[in-house]
Each structure stands twice: as C-alpha cells, then as structure tokens.
Write a structure and sequence with these properties.
Blueprint (H helix, E strand, L loop, with lengths): L10 E2 L10 E2 L15 E4 L7 E2 L3 E5 L8 E2 L13 E8 L4 E6 L2 E4 L3 E5 L17 E9 L2 E7 L1 E2 L5 E2 L12 E6 L5 E5 L1 E2 L8 E2 L1 E2 L5 E9 L11 E5 L2 E3 L1 E6 L7 E6 L8 E12 L4 H4 E5 L3 E5 L1
Length: about 300
C-alpha cells in the first residue's frame, strides 16, 4: 500500500519545558487500498480499522471529487471541492445517537482525508441490546451521494504514523538530544534516499546526551482519563512519557514525547508501540479497553 497525497501542515512540539523546540510536518495520510467498490474508512496512521472519535482518517473509494483540493484554513472546512462527509452512530433501532459533519483535510476523485468528529458519542456500554450500535458514513459529492457502513469504536483506536506511510516499518518521529555543552540536536529517525517507500531507520545515539523521542499518532488522546493508562513500549521495556497530548496546531494529531535512556544503547532495531487502558462511559466491568497501536521501528546504535 502507498500514499499519494500530502497534508501540508505543521505542528510545534509542546514540550518547551523540557527544552525541546523542534517542528514537525506530519507525513501524508496513508494506506491506499486498490479497487475499493464502496467507501472504506481507516486510520490515517495505521491504515486499519476501527477508528475512534477525533482521529484522522482516510476514506478510499471512487467518484468523490472532480479534482484534488486541500484545506488551507483552520478550523478545517466541512465542505471541500463540492464534497462533504457525515458520520452517524445508530442504535439497534436505527435511531441516530449521533450525527455530525466531518472536518476535511483533502479531497480527490478517489480519496478523502478527514477527521472523525471529536464529540462523536456512542451507545452506553451497559451490555444487552441497548449497547448495540452501527456507524455509517454519508458522502455528498458533485456527482451524487454515497453511503457506507464503517468500523468505529467508543474506545480509543491508537495509530502511529510511519515514514513510509504504510502503518508499518520505521516511525515518523524525531530524535532530540540535549548535549552536555548546552546545544541541542534534532534529527529524523528515518532517511528516504529514493522518496516515499524507501525510508530506512537512521542509527540513534542515546549516549551523546539527554535524549528523547517524539512520536506522532492519532486516535490516542480522545478518551476521558487521558493520559492515564498510556504506556509506550520499546520492545519489552516501558519508556518514561514526559509529554502526551493533542497537537495545538493540527486537528486530530497526537504527540507523545518519551525519554530514551542510555541503557538502550546497542539494542539495534527496536519495536515501538503505544498501549491504552481504561474504561468508556457505562458499566465499568463491561466497558474496559486495552488497545495497542500498530508497531513501528527505530534503530538504536
């Protein structure tokens, strides 16, 4: 799977108190299924479903827009290039529990990049028929309307962005080092000699100074007890999180900053993932979640 369209926006790192002052340009939204007979919606980071409230998604299909159009203003528009999308949650009797317009980043004939409404609500998870729900997508285009049943969850659906824009492989992340002489270095954890699809990890030196890794994702911060229940794992080792939260300047983008201890030196290729645990509204015993993101990699020398 590949991606062809880049969302042009910047997010400032939010950890100024730790001395991190990098800037980040989010990677293009990813995962591009071919020959999609009906609209399909997946996480823009992991390329998988289900998705969750507030997350950035990619919708694939056909006959959406007449051309390619990107949003240029904030807040994001709910109509772009003659295209709009509405996200609806229905109960077991097909009564709308929630219905809301999806903010749009980008539209083209075959792809829509959007955000699930952050205020989307689902049926209370009290078990029985009262907790049953269905999620639908209604897309309005210049050539008519399209509908699809999509997969969404009241629990968070964490996804981490990757450099190759496939939801797999080397992370789309920055490695920040505060050196003993008071200077700071910021580097991408991947290099892409042949462009998208050729990205490989860059060896990271965790012995040069106080080091941190900045990860970017979506579907992470939109649960009520965030950041409680958030864990970042490097292989089997939990990493200390010193900042986690939504980007203040990019809708739906989540940022996680973790310290990289010198004890990781010599680890080589390391798998990273984010796990979220907690409960959604309702009876706690039937509403708990324990969800893990897609796995991304870095190289530690």
């Amino acid at each position: 799977m590949t991606i062809s369209k880049r969302i042009q926006a910047a997010a400032m790192l939010m950890a100024a108190s730790a001395g991190l002052n990098a800037q980040f340009v989010p990677v293009p939204l990813d995962s591009h299924p071919a020959d999609v007979p009906a609209p399909q919606m997946v996480s823009a980071a992991s390329g998988t479903a289900p998705v969750s409230a507030g997350s950035i998604v990619s919708i694939y299909g056909a006959d959406f827009a007449n051309g390619a159009t990107s949003a240029t203003t904030l807040p994001l528009p709910v109509e772009l290039g003659g295209v709009s999308a509405n996200f609806t949650v229905l109960d077991i009797l097909n009564f709308p529990v929630f219905s809301g317009a999806m903010p749009l980043f980008y539209v083209s004939p075959t792809q829509i990049n959007a955000r699930v409404p952050a205020d989307a609500v689902f049926q209370p998870c009290n078990a029985g028929s009262g907790s049953v729900y269905f999620t639908h997508l209604q897309i309005t285009t210049p050539s008519g309307g399209q509908t699809a049943t999509v997969s969404a969850t009241p629990a968070p659906a964490p996804g981490l962005f990757t450099a190759n824009e496939t939801g797999k492989g080397v992370a789309a992340a920055q490695f920040v080092t505060n050196l003993p002489d008071g200077t700071q270095t910021i580097m991408q954890v991947a290099e892409c000699p042949g462009g998208t699809g050729t990205c490989v990890p860059v060896p990271l030196n965790v012995n040069a100074g106080s080091s941190a890794l900045v990860l970017w994702g979506t579907g992470i911060s939109e649960y009520s007890t965030f950041p409680q229940g958030l864990t970042v794992m490097a292989g089997n080792q939990p990493l200390q999180v010193f900042y986690a939260g939504p980007s203040a300047q990019y809708a739906g983008l989540d940022q996680i900053n973790v310290w990289m201890p010198s004890s990781l030196a010599g680890s080589g290729m390391v798998n990273l993932s984010v796990t979220l645990t907690g409960t959604t509204p309702g009876v706690a015993s039937t509403c708990s979640f324990n969800v893990t993101s897609n796995v991304v990699t870095i190289d530690i020398e």
